[in-house]
């Protein structure tokens, strides 16, 4: 006995379900991104999954020494003020490097890292990268560069169980982020890629050399106006 073909109404219902899910996701993400344009993100998935606990203290960008943002640009994303969320050249170079073998190198911008840190989870995969791209486009359009930098400096992991540069400054240097010296800002920036394995206090080896390199580039960022979009 042959099965009866699905009626047009039933087929239409099955088509509408994924469309409604997609529309709901789009609306929810738009609402969330718009909310965080004005309200600090209370917690992130990375924080919730951190077995070491959460130490953080939201601080406005105006209360963070300008050299900290410059250090982040120098270390993580030299084209932060000129791209629209994605650095195509950096992505292409990272892909070529990774294809040749050796240590994996990323090509993510500060905008992409902020989107991942606030809305998603750590790790790879095409699904997460696709969602990261979507949220990157949204925060670039809705937040703007200054807000992206402010959120980044408050949610980035700066040490074991430590999030944001204010908490990082107190952890390493016993004072607030408003009093960071250029060398201190550079050391925190040097820790960002591997915050559980690097320390900004008395760094040695690669971390010390990398921090010194970032400190030297902070002056270039300021001189060339590479931080103009957050001034």
TrEMBL record:
It comes from the Bacteria. The keyword Metal-binding does not apply. Residues 54-200 form the Glycosyl transferase family domain. Keywords: Cell inner membrane, Cell membrane, Cell shape, Cell wall biogenesis/degradation, Glycosyltransferase, Membrane, Peptidoglycan synthesis, Transferase, Transmembrane, Transmembrane helix. Pfam families: Transgly. Signal peptide: none annotated. GO terms for molecular function: glycosyltransferase activity. Gene3D superfamilies: Biosynthetic peptidoglycan transglycosylase-like. It catalyses: [GlcNAc-(1->4)-Mur2Ac(oyl-L-Ala-gamma-D-Glu-L-Lys-D-Ala-D-Ala)](n)-di-trans,octa-cis-undecaprenyl diphosphate + beta-D-GlcNAc-(1->4)-Mur2Ac(oyl-L-Ala-gamma-D-Glu-L-Lys-D-Ala-D-Ala)-di-trans,octa-cis-undecaprenyl diphosphate = [GlcNAc-(1->4)-Mur2Ac(oyl-L-Ala-gamma-D-Glu-L-Lys-D-Ala-D-Ala)](n+1)-di-trans,octa-cis-undecaprenyl diphosphate + di-trans,octa-cis-undecaprenyl diphosphate + H(+). Its EC number is 2.4.99.28. Peptidoglycan polymerase that catalyzes glycan chain elongation from lipid-linked precursors. This is Biosynthetic peptidoglycan transglycosylase. The lineage of its organism: Bacteria, Pseudomonadati, Pseudomonadota, Alphaproteobacteria, Sphingomonadales.
